[in-house]
Amino acid sequence: MDPIADMLVIIKNGYLANKEQVVLPYSKFKLQIAKVLEKEGRVEKTQKEGKGLELVLKYDKTKPAINEIKRVSKLGRRVYIKSKHIKSIKGGRGFSIISTPNGVMTDKDARKKNLGGEVICQIW
Fold first, then answer.
1. What pLDDT is recorded for position 1?
2. What pLDDT is attached to residue 94?
3. Whole-model pTM above 0.85?
4. Using CA atoms in the order 97, 67, 14, 120, what is the torsion angle rounded to 10 degrees?
5. pLDDT tens sequence across 55-94
6. CA pair distance 124, 113, nearest whole angstrom
7. Distance from C-alpha of 37 to C-alpha of 40, rounded to nearest angstrom
8. HEC profile for the chain?
């Protein structure tokens, strides 16, 4: 159905179950999203393992680094946004992941580079 939504649910459930790592099916797009999560400090480490993608989850003592992941653009309803309309999430405590013509990046990076695109998800 929707592989990106499946990825986000696997990550969210991994944090809820206090797992150290999760493994999900590999795709280049999922790897790009995972690299953004790693760069933002929400995931400890990302690596390709055979036909899977392994994410080492990050915790602050016992508190997970991700409280909520919300899928914005879905298969039936794609959500696109221009760079001047990109807003901060939860007063700057969260961020959006946006697929732009220059690759997958956070809302802050897209605003800096004056790029719009498809809003994949919001994380806080």
1. 86
2. 96
3. yes
4. -20
5. 999 999 889 999 999 999 999 999 999 999 999 999 989 9
6. 22
7. 5
8. CCHHHHHHHHHHHHHHCCCCEEEEECCHHHHHHHHHHHHCCCEEEEEEECCEEEEEECEECCEECCCCEEECCCCCCCCEECHHHCCCEHHHCEEEEEEECCEEEEHHHHHHCCCCEEEEEEEC
Phi and psi for 85 in degrees, rounded to 5?
A: -100, 5
Sign of CA dihedral 32, 36, 42, 44: positive
pLDDT classification of 24: cutoffs 50, 70, 90: very high
How would you class 55 by CB atoms within 10 Å of its CB: exposed for 0-12, middle for 13-18, buried for 19 or more?
Answer: buried
pLDDT over 90 for what percent of the chain? 96
Report the distance separating Cα 47 and Cα 23, nearest Å: 10
In which order are the strands placed within the sheet that holds 21-25?
21-25, 52-57, 43-49
| Per-residue pLDDT at 33 exceeds 90 | yes
